[in-house]
Amino acid sequence: MKGTFRQRPEQPHITLRRQLLDGSSSLSNPAPPRKASAADVEGVGALAQEQLTEHGVVAISLDRPMTNREYLAFGALLGTAQLEHSPAVQPFVEEGVILNLVTCEPATSNPDLQPFAANWLALHSESSSLPIAAQPRFVSLMCLAADGDSAAETVLVPMRQVFDALTDEDRKLLANTRYDGRDEAPPLLRYDRGRPVFSIRDFQDENLEWECLCGAAEPAEVDEALIRLYAAMYGGRCYHISWQCGLLVVIDNTVHFHGRTIACAPPKNGPLRHLKRLRLSAAAS
């Protein structure tokens, strides 16, 4: 069975999304970042591994941003850096794998360019349409320059919390539904050693074409499960990260959804916000 999910004004997640991402809501702060020296790459890597295992996210306040060489060495302690393939972002890529995220556009609907724009980034898991082996396990972000109190903030939502808000029937439907037209795409919900993992993004005004392998279900039931999933993503507890120079964050892509609040337009004078991103496949065990 196949269908199309379309966003409609009466769906509750639309209001919840706006409240979370328009920059006006009060967000919970995660624990204060740990402090470390950028030159101590192995020590930073050990701290990151420890915190990722325990919390699925780590924030480390470095005494300075790492050099590209240090950053790549740090990433190699966690996994294998993934190449940035999109032609649209190549002007921002260094070493084939480091993406420079600089706020330089007022707004855009192009998903590839939204990380560089001032509009919000809807909640998502990274590379959700790709096969599981091709999805990054970790997303690392390092701040080289922040643009003040009005800057966009990164938002994290725990997948377990979203899972707990769903009914058993919702979970069954989502575990048997995937993006249509992508034979190797994982189900929207899967289990990794008993832990729920979602592979989905909020399509906002775009259509979500889906395929459900649960033969007894009706299309309306899948759409209703998606409505409740999106409402759970935006309606529960969340954490935010306010960026400052030298802050290093790593997010486990199987533990948290992530997004970004709306930012002020790119400033005419003064520094632009500048983050460097690495997407990392998990290290072989």
From TrEMBL:
UniProt organism field: Rhodococcus opacus RKJ300 = JCM 13270
Signal peptide stretch: none
InterPro entries in the cross-refs: TauD-like_sf, TauD/TfdA-like
Every TauD/TfdA-like domain range: 46-278
Coiled coil region boundaries: none
GO molecular function: oxidoreductase activity
Domain of life: Bacteria
Name the UniProt record assigns to this protein: TauD/TfdA-like domain-containing protein
Alphabetical UniProt keywords: Iron, Oxidoreductase
